[in-house]
Amino acid sequence: AIRITQSPSSLSATTGDRVTITCRASQIINSYLAWYQQRPGKAPQLLIYAASTLGSGVPSRFSGSRSGTDFTLTISSLQSEDFATYYCQHYYPYTESTFGPGTKVEI
Amino acid sequence: EVQLVESGGNLVQPGGSLRLSCVASGFTFSSYWMSWVRQAPGKGLEWVANIKHDGSEKFYVDSVKGRFTISRDNAKNSLFLQMNSLRADDAAIYYCARDGGFSSSNYFDSWGQGTLVTVSS
Prior knowledge:
The structure holds two protein chains of two kinds.
Chain A: E1 4-7, E2 10-12, E3 19-25, E4 33-38, E5 45-49, E6 53-54, E7 62-67, E8 70-75, E9 85-90, E10 98-99, E11 103-106
Parallel strand pairs in A: 2-11
Antiparallel strand pairs in A: 1-3, 3-8, 4-5, 4-9, 5-6, 7-8, 9-10, 9-11
Chain B: E1 3-7, E2 11-12, E3 18-25, E4 34-39, E5 45-51, E6 58-60, E7 68-73, E8 78-83, E9 92-99, E10 108-111, E11 115-119
C-alpha cells in the first residue's frame, strides 16, 4: 500500500504569513495528489488536484507543487479564514486512495 | 450548484446494520463516480467505497469488504451505503463525495455535510 506522510502535524502562524505544508509518498505516484481544507465542524473542501491544479473557486493564494515523491501546499499570505486542518490525498490509479494524517494551522 | 445531502446516520449496537443515503442535485448524477468517505471523531479522513457512474464497478477499503455495500439509483439521483456487522471502529461521520475523476481511485471535488454513525451498546 502507498503510505502518505505529512508534516508538520500542526503549526502556529499569523495572518499574512507564508505557510508551507509537505506530503511525501512512499513510492512514485506521479501527480496523483490532492489537497483539502477542513474547517472545524465542516466538510472538507478541495483545494488542489493533480498536485498543482487549483480547484474551482479556490483563491490564488493557494498553490501546490511536486518534486519527485514530495508534494507541497503553499499559502502565500495566510488569511483568517485559512485557519483550518489541511489534508493531502493520493489517488494513484488502481490503488486504494489514502489521506495524509493532516496539518492543523492555528493562530 | 452541486449539492449532496446525506441522511441515515444513527446510534446502532455493535453487530447491527444501518443504511446511509445521499441525494445529489445540481449536476448530472448519472455521469459521475461517487464515493463514501468517513472521519472518526477527532481523526483523519478515510475513503470507504466508490461506485462507477452506471453502478457496474464498485470498490471498497479492505476494512469494510464483505460488510458494506455501495449502490446507487440514478433515476433518483441517490447514493447508498448499506452497512452490516457494524463495529465500534466504524463509528464516524460519513461523507458522500463526488469523484473528480473517472477511475477506481479519484480525488473528491464536492462533499456533503456528513451524517454521524455511532456504534455503541
